[in-house]
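Key result, reporting period 2: structure in, sequence out.
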């Protein structure tokens, strides 16, 4: 049965026009004439039976259906391009692992250790792409993912790596200007928040015996790496996973004013589809990562280790 898919040329022209919202700029980006782009889009709209653009004089805008379709087509073309480049680069050999990772975990914990994996597995390439939210494996080109959360991922096998404890960190210079003798004193300093951990500071203060205070104010940052940098720059005190700030703590760039930790209810996990994999790179990476995580747990505090089970 023939697939009901428009021509790739039409989809590429539509994606470019939707991205630029200008047929001329889309044509320039594709090294085509404006007429050729317009013909491809007209043919696509005719094929779909749905208008994709509103045309008012010389200006265009996406229709509601066009906006939805543009997002999906862009994602599909990106996925097709990645798959094509991967196949071309490695001549079809199954020695490439496509891994989705949490940004700060990837840059601060995983990447510094990857040289060891490559030394033991010189023929395997690990490609990293940042993804923070769960997804359906069958809708992506990923072989596996490392995520933070509950050990549940639909349609996937989950391996716990380790847990997490949050500790307050600040620059010595900032804390010198505002001496803190007890946890309550931190309220007088700017408190830096991670965007997805809205209640973390509230919970930390409650665990430290400081109740009935409003600590929701303060700058918010999307990534823990941003929080670490902001705290190092003296913008305030951040609440971050201890293992993500080890370098700055060891160098003295950051200090922990009160070694009271907040244990997270969740942990880090390696997940991959529960269907049998034909990619030998995944099996080797899984064995290596679990061994690295086990070795790392030996160096962790009891609060972190407790969430690794």
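The corresponding designed sequence is given below.
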């Amino acid at each position: 049965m023939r697939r009901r898919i428009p021509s790739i040329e039409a989809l590429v022209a539509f994606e470019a026009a939707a991205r630029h919202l200008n047929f001329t700029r889309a044509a320039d980006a594709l090294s085509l004439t404006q007429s050729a782009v317009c013909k491809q889009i007209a043919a696509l709209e005719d094929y779909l039976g749905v208008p994709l653009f509103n045309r008012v004089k010389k200006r265009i805008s996406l229709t509601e259906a066009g906006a939805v379709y543009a997002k999906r087509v862009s994602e599909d073309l990106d996925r097709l391009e990645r798959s094509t480049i991967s196949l071309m680069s490695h001549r079809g050999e199954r020695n490439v692992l496509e891994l989705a990772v949490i940004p700060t975990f990837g840059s601060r914990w995983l990447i510094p250790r990857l040289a060891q994996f490559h030394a033991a597995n010189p023929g395997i390439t690990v490609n990293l792409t940042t993804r923070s939210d769960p997804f359906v494996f069958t809708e992506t080109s990923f072989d596996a993912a490392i995520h933070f959360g509950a050990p549940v991922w639909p349609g996937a096998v989950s391996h716990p790596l380790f847990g997490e404890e949050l500790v307050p960190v600040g620059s010595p210079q900032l804390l010198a200007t505002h001496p803190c003798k007890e946890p309550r004193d931190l309220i007088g300093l700017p408190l830096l928040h991670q965007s997805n951990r809205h209640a973390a500071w509230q919970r930390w203060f409650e665990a430290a015996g400081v109740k009935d205070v409003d600590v929701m104010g303060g700058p918010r940052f999307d990534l823990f790496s941003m929080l670490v940098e902001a705290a190092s720059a003296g913008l305030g005190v951040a609440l971050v996973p201890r293992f993500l700030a080890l370098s700055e703590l060891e160098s003295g760039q950051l200090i922990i004013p009160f070694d009271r930790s907040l244990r997270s209810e969740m942990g880090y996990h390696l997940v991959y589809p529960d269907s049998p994999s034909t990619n030998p790179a995944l099996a080797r990476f899984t064995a290596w990562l679990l061994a690295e995580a086990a070795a790392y747990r030996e160096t962790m505090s009891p609060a972190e280790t407790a969430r690794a089970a």
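The two ends are 49 Å apart (CA to CA). The longest strand covers residues 156-162. This case is discussed further under Risks and Mitigation.
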